[in-house]
Amino acid sequence: MMRKSFIFITIGFITITRLDFNMTPTDTVSLHYLVRKPKVKKEKTPLLILLHGVGSNEQNMFSMANSFPADFLVVSARGPITLGPNAFAWFQVEFTPDGPIINKEQAESSRKQLIQFIADLKKTEDFDPSQVYLLGFSQGGIMSYSVALTEPSAVKGIAVMSGRLLPEIKPIVASENNLEKLKVFISHGTNDQVLRFQYARDAVGYLKNKGINPEFHSYQDGHAINPEMLRDVVEWLGKH
Length: 240
What we know:
Layout: E1 22-23, E2 33-36, E3 47-51, H1 58-62, E4 73-77, E5 81-84, E6 87-89, E7 93-96, E8 99-102, H2 104-124, E9 132-137, H3 139-150, E10 157-161, H4 176-179, E11 183-189, H5 198-209, E12 215-219, H6 227-239
Parallel strand pairs: 3-4, 3-9, 9-10, 10-11, 11-12
Antiparallel strand pairs: 1-2, 2-4, 5-6, 7-8
Protein name: Esterase
Keywords: Hydrolase
Family: Belongs to the AB hydrolase superfamily. AB hydrolase 2 family.
């Protein structure tokens, strides 16, 4: 019998000091989150939602918040599945020699929760609902695909960093007409040993068949967000 292993991936980032944030009560919205208010006020504020990987938490991704454009409202959400102290996920997953095996029910529940979370944020935060972006690392990137491709009216664009597109969502992906305005950034390390580089290539091919032309970047790196990757996604956000 093939032996399976269950692992959690936590990626660290450079600590950013003097970060202005608030912790929002969980009874106000459907997910717990941290927020960086826009440093530059404008009439219509774009929203960037950061989604962490399995075994991580909202503080991990939030450490990058001050790197993003000053006019954005930046929110970092916590996954609803508790794995341990300060360790959360969007769904449980087993990493096996044949590839990841996910808890499909949890993944679908989190997809719906994130869609509701975007709607909930309108009650507590001031932003333009036509300018919502998701930026996810690893499992957070998976959820970015799942939300955007099934509910493209909820988001303007997604940035997927070292993620993959779940085959489970393909039957419920929106029509090509509804996807045509979706903006997509994909970045992946060619030496990724957790979610292999081929997942990114497969996603690019699938999206192109759906009429989406993603901006795709590859790096000589593993399963991580490196400074070059962060620079490229910040530049992409600035363009849109």
